[in-house]
Amino acid sequence: MQLGLTIVRLVLAQLVHCFYWELPNGLLPQDLDMSKDFGLSLSKAKHLLAKPTYRLM
């Protein structure tokens, strides 16, 4: 279990570090819908759309 959590954190850190993340179509951060959808696990009501641009060359 601990190894799995470590690997997930490592992969997420690499994604955040290696890309510039932008919102599409001039969307502003305050325009995002951050409401939650309740179920077996807590998730976003609407999917987050972000455009990655590779930054390490």
Rg calc: 15 Å
Which band does the percent of strand residues land in?
15-25%
Structural class: alpha+beta
Shape category: flat
Characterize the main sheet.
Answer: 2 strands, antiparallel
Integer tally of domains: 1
Order of helices and strands: HEEEE
The tally of strands reads 4
Q: Termini distance?
A: 34 Å
What do these coordinates show?
This protein has 57 residues and is α+β, with helices and mostly antiparallel strands. The chain has one domain (2-54). It has one helix at 2-18, and strands spanning 19-22, 36-37, 43-44, 51-54. The strands form two sheets. It has a two-stranded antiparallel sheet with strand order 1-4. A two-stranded antiparallel ribbon has the order 2-3. β2 and β3 (43-44) form a beta hairpin. It is flat and about 35 Å long. It starts with a helix and ends with a strand. The model has no long low-confidence stretch (mean pLDDT 87). It comes from Rosa chinensis (China rose). Residues 1-18 form the signal peptide. Keywords: Heme, Iron, Membrane, Metal-binding, Monooxygenase, Oxidoreductase, Signal.
